[in-house]
Design goal:
This protein is α+β, with helices and mostly antiparallel strands and 413 residues long.
C-alpha cells in the first residue's frame, strides 16, 4: 500500500511539474495570435518589447512602459502603464479612442481634471464580459464602468471642473469632432488639453490658446486643421509655407511672447523644419531659407552622401541644420557632421550606404548587422559625456546603442 501511495504522489508531482512547464513561458513575438499582433501594431508600434510570455490561459507582452495581456484567442484583456519612479505612463489615446466606450473617457475628463488613465482591464462575470475597471495616475481612484460606458462604482468623483468659455468655444470651432480625453490645470491657472487624436492644446487662464501641438510619439504627427491655421494665424505665414515648403504640413504652432506681449509665432513642419514669424506673418531670422551657405566641408559631405537631394539649411548660433528628403543632418560651425537622422516626420529610412561605409561608422554598422540582423540604423549622433566623445545609435525598432571612438560597443541605453 505504501508503495502505491508513493507512486501516486510521484505521479501527481510529475503531472504538476509538466503542467506548470507551460506556465509563464518565454515565447517569440511571432508566436502570438494574429489578432494580438494586429492590436500591438495598431497601438504600440515603435515600442521596444522587453519580454513576451505565454501561460495556459493568456499572453503577456512587456514593454518599457507598458504591459498588455491577451486571452488565448489574442483578444486584449488588460493594458497597463507601469509605475516608474512613482510616476505612471498614460495608456495610448488611440487605444482609448477605439477600444473602450467613449462615455468612459468623457466621464473621467469631466470629473478628474488633472489625471490620466494608466490602466484599463476588462471585467468578467461567469466568463461574460460585463464592463471595464479603470485606474488613474493619482494612485487612488479605481473606477468601474459597464459595457455602455456608464459609471457603476468606485471612488466618489470630485466636483466637475470646466474649461473657460473661450477655450470651449475654441475647441468647438476647430476640433468639434476630436473629443477631449485629458485636461490639466497648473498652479498658474493655465490649462493643457489633450484630444483623442493626440493633439495637445495649451490655454492661458482666460482660455486663450498659446500652443497647438500635433506632434505625437515616435515621429508620428497629426496635421492641424486648416480652419484653425487660416483663421488664427497671419495670412503671410500660410502663404510663405505653401510657396517654399510645398510638401510640408504644419504640425505645431506656438505663440511667442516678450514681456507678456505677443511678438510672433513659431511654426513646426512635418519635415522637422522650425520657422519663426512676427505678428504680421513675416519670416524672422534665417528661418530655414535656402540662402544660408554651408561651410565647404559640409557641402562636400552633402554632395558625397546625399547627392541628388534638394536640401534646406537653417543656421543658429551653434550649428547648421540641413533638411534633405527624409533626412536631417546637423553640422557644427566648421561644417563637421554631428548628427545624421533619418527619422523625420513619419518616415523610418536607413542611412545612406556611402555614409555607413565611413571607417568608424562601418565598424558600428557591422556590429549592428551581426547582433541585430533584421534591424538597421536610423540615427547616429556624436555625444560628449564628461568631455569624452561617444556615438549614440538608434535602430529602427527604437533600440539605442552607445559606442566609443574606436567603434566598440559600450552599452545599450
Amino acid at each position: 500500500m505504501k508503495k502505491v501511495i508513493l507512486l501516486l504522489n510521484f505521479t501527481v508531482l510529475f503531472c504538476m511539474f509538466f503542467a506548470c512547464s507551460d506556465d509563464d513561458k518565454v515565447i517569440n513575438e511571432s508566436e502570438l495570435p494574429s489578432s494580438a499582433k494586429t492590436f500591438l501594431e495598431t497601438y504600440f508600434s515603435g515600442q521596444s518589447v522587453l519580454d513576451t510570455r505565454k501561460d495556459n490561459d493568456e499572453y503577456k507582452i512587456y514593454y518599457t512602459n507598458y504591459k498588455v495581456e491577451f486571452d488565448r484567442q489574442g483578444i486584449w484583456k488588460q493594458v497597463e502603464g507601469k509605475q516608474i519612479k512613482n510616476d505612471y505612463k498614460a495608456v495610448p489615446y488611440a487605444f482609448l479612442n477605439e477600444e473602450i466606450p467613449a462615455g468612459i473617457v468623457v466621464w473621467i475628463t469631466q470629473y478628474y481634471l488633472n489625471t490620466s488613465i494608466v490602466e484599463v482591464e476588462k471585467e468578467y462575470e461567469k466568463g461574460v464580459h460585463i464592463g471595464y475597471d479603470i485606474e488613474l495616475n493619482n494612485g487612488i481612484d479605481d473606477l468601474d464602468f459597464d459595457l455602455n460606458g456608464n459609471y457603476t462604482k468606485g471612488t466618489t468623483p470630485p466636483v466637475s471642473t470646466v474649461l473657460p468659455e473661450k477655450a470651449q468655444t475654441f475647441l468647438n470651432t476647430y476640433f468639434a469632432d476630436d473629443a477631449v480625453v485629458s485636461r490639466e490645470k497648473d498652479n498658474d491657472g493655465d490649462y493643457e488639453v489633450i484630444l483623442a487624436s493626440g493633439i495637445e492644446i495649451d490655454f492661458d487662464s482666460q482660455g486663450i490658446w498659446d500652443n497647438v501641438d500635433g506632434k505625437l510619439e515616435n515621429g508620428q504627427y497629426k496635421i492641424l486643421p486648416e480652419t484653425f491655421l487660416t483663421t488664427e494665424l497671419p495670412a503671410g505665414i500660410i502663404a510663405f509655407i505653401k510657396t517654399n515648403y510645398l510638401n510640408n504640413e504644419i504640425v505645431e504652432v506656438d505663440k511667442e511672447f516678450k514681456n507678456n506681449v505677443l511678438v510672433g509665432y513659431e511654426v513646426d513642419l512635418s519635415s522637422g523644419v522650425e520657422l519663426d514669424f512676427d505678428t504680421n506673418g513675416n519670416l524672422t531670422g534665417s528661418g530655414g531659407t535656402s540662402t544660408v551657405e554651408l561651410p565647404q566641408t559640409a557641402k562636400d559631405f552633402m554632395n558625397t552622401h546625399f547627392s541628388g537631394l534638394t536640401y534646406t539649411t537653417i543656421k543658429d548660433e551653434n550649428e547648421y541644420d540641413v533638411y534633405a528628403g527624409a533626412y536631417k543632418i546637423e553640422f557644427d560651425l566648421q561644417g563637421n557632421w554631428t548628427k545624421v537622422d533619418s527619422y523625420v516626420g513619419q518616415v523610418k529610412t536607413a542611412l545612406p550606404q556611402s555614409f555607413l561605409a565611413l571607417t568608424l561608422v562601418s565598424i558600428i554598422n557591422n556590429y549592428v548587422t551581426t547582433n541585430y540582423p533584421e534591424r538597421y540604423i536610423i540615427e547616429i549622433e556624436k555625444d560628449y559625456e564628461n568631455g569624452k566623445l561617444y556615438y549614440d545609435i538608434e535602430l529602427d525598432n527604437q533600440v539605442d546603442l552607445v559606442f566609443d571612438t574606436d567603434g566598440q560597443f559600450v552599452k545599450r541605453d
